[in-house]
Amino acid sequence: MSSPVELQRLAVEIAREAGELAARRRHEGVSIAATKSALADIVTDADREVEALIRDRLAADRPDDGFLGEESGAGVSRSGVTWVVDPIDGTVNYAYGIPAYAVSIAAVEGEPDPASWTALAGAVFSPAVGELFQAARGEGAFLDGRRLTVTDPVSAAGALIATGFGYDPATHAGDLARLMKVMPLARDIRRMGAASLDLAGVAAGRLDGYFERGLHPWDIAAGSLLVLEAGGRVGGIGGRGPGRTMTIAAGPDLFRRLSDVITD
Ligand code: LIP
Which candidate, 13, 68, 174, 247, has a CA 20 to 30 Å from the CA of 53? Predict the structure, then answer.
């Protein structure tokens, strides 16, 4: 099996190529949507095209690895490594032209389950901003060559905490009730709309913490490794691993305090 550093190099190389395609399609899409298709169709087409590029490049370079992507079915791993990919994370931002979307690519060992996998390498590329976050297991997390560190402890003024809300209106009351429990810990809240960038923000110390219910493995695979390699913690409710039920990410002190109040 390749080393985490080699896997990171491949993730970075493909994330850049995929991000440039996503940005190009977004630019082209704006003109097409103005004349022909609904912008939603443009976004879907871009999502699928970008994921196909990533999947094809990985298959060519590492044919025995598995694949789990937002837009296509899972591919079983023969090597023990699975690539967990969100081709365009922050899809609604992408559709609206908000420059907060990212290509998220991670290599994990074991079953592609955030609660049990071992993340080996990851890259989160934000093409609209031109920032590439990367990490390899045991090697640290970096933004364009600068080593990242989570904030710990957070300011006495309170924590800057990001969160998100699912697309299903039936979940909003519960999400808002949970947010009310967290507010006493916060100086302010941010809702950026892309989990991979929220997690990258925690790793970079731009956010003190992040929590969200309902995330998919591909939303958090690369960003979670960034947080861990930047000295932070990532988990779920009641000491369980992160996943659809809940993902919490922060420096150790705030992680403990968020875990105490996020109980459902
Ligand atoms: C998004 C996440 C975001 C969440 C959205 C959506 P997508 O992923 O990154 O954190 O709040 O509901 O799930 O759908 O843009 O890949």
Answer: 247
Structural domains of the chain, count:
2
Per-residue model confidence (pLDDT) at position 34:
56
Element (H, E) at 198: helix 195-204
**167 within ligand 1 shell (Cβ under 6 A):** yes
Domain identity same for 121 and 54: yes
Evaluate whether 123 touches 132 at the Cβ level (below 8 Å). yes
C-alpha to C-alpha distance for 106 and 123, rounded to whole angstroms: 6
Residues in the chain predicted with pLDDT less than 50, given as ranges, are 36
Please indicate, yes or no, whether residues 51 and 121 belong to a single structural domain of this protein. yes
Q: Is the CB of 166 under 6 A from ligand 1?
A: yes
Are 79 and 203 within one domain?
no
Residue 152 lies in a domain: no
Q: Which of 215, 220, 244 to mutate to test the pocket of ligand 1 (most atoms within 8 A of CB)?
A: 215
Tell me: do 43 and 122 sit in the same domain.
yes
Residue 31, pLDDT score = 57
- Which residues lie below 8 Å from residue 147, measured CB to CB, with a gap of 6+? 140, 141
- Tell me the pTM: 0.95
Q: Hey, which of 26, 47, 71, 89 would you mutate to test ligand 1's pocket, going by the most ligand atoms within 8 Å of its Cβ?
A: 89
The whole-number pLDDT of residue 2 equals 77
Please name the residues in contact with 241: beta carbons below 8 A apart, sequence gap of 6 or more.
113, 114, 115, 116, 235
Q: State which ligand 1 atom lies nearest to the alpha carbon of 70.
A: 16
- Tell me the residue range of the domain where 215 lies: 159-263
Residues 82 and 57 in one domain: yes
